[in-house]
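[09:14] KT: can someone run the structure on this one? pasting the chain below
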Amino acid sequence: MISQKARYALRALVALTRAGPGASLMISEIAVGQHIPKKFLEQILLELKRNGIVMSKRGKAGGYLLLKDPASTSFGEVLRIIDGPIAPLPCLSKIAYRSCVDCKSEADCEIRHVFAKVTEATRAVLDSTTLADAVGEIDVLEKVG
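[09:31] RB: done, structure tokens below
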């Protein structure tokens, strides 16, 4: 399960994606529009800024805008920034691997084998789905529906 912080980060990035290339939004606009507590959103946007996803602008036309192209920003990248590794078991993590305390052999662990399939499928979807894809899919559904 992803954290509320990660959901808020993704919602804020979708709002910035919808604003369009080079457009900036004030924190208060994003907070109100996405129903995100403003103080929490400030922390999230600072973390995304430190990781090169967004940038801030001062002045009359200030606010936050996407620094990285939404077509090359995957859900997986954002989740790793906010929540850390995408793995239900520590022995399946690529960036925070550690063996399970109660496991004698990873090669023979039935639980690990099942969750390895789940993890790979999840990573494949998250790493291949970009902010632009997500916004585009919703736009298509809205036009059809």
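[09:33] KT: thanks! The chain has two domains: 4-66, 74-129.
[09:34] RB: yep, looked fine to me
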